[in-house]
Task: structure prediction
Amino acid sequence: MRFAEDVIISPYITEKSNDEISQGKYTFIVARRATKTDIRNAVEKLFGVKVINVNTVNYEGKEKRMGVHVGTTPKWKKAIVKIDTDPKPVTYYDSNGKQVTTGKKYKTEIPEFGGMQ
Result:
């Protein structure tokens, strides 16, 4: 996918998805052709968070009828994104052998998600 705004279509708000926010899991409706890597990069870019993993579900359209007319609802894709809610500082050794500690530079929640929090 080309742009992050093209990957994430909208948040998916249900009772279950609202309960999972406390565990750091956010649910989105995404483009059907988006891969897990596309979704991870889009969420990290748009919301400034660190994504731990992405689970996706493809939904087929349901058959609906109105009188004698038969049609289907559109196919769609849902992504459940788990973010890092407990950032720990990173410690490493630089080229001189000194120990350097840096803090994480990303958020621990998505406050824009459906107007919650």
Q: What stands out?
A: Residues 43 and 49 are 7 Å apart (CA to CA). The first strand starts at residue 8 and ends at 11. Helices lie at 4-7, 15-20, 36-47. The two ends are 30 Å apart (CA to CA).
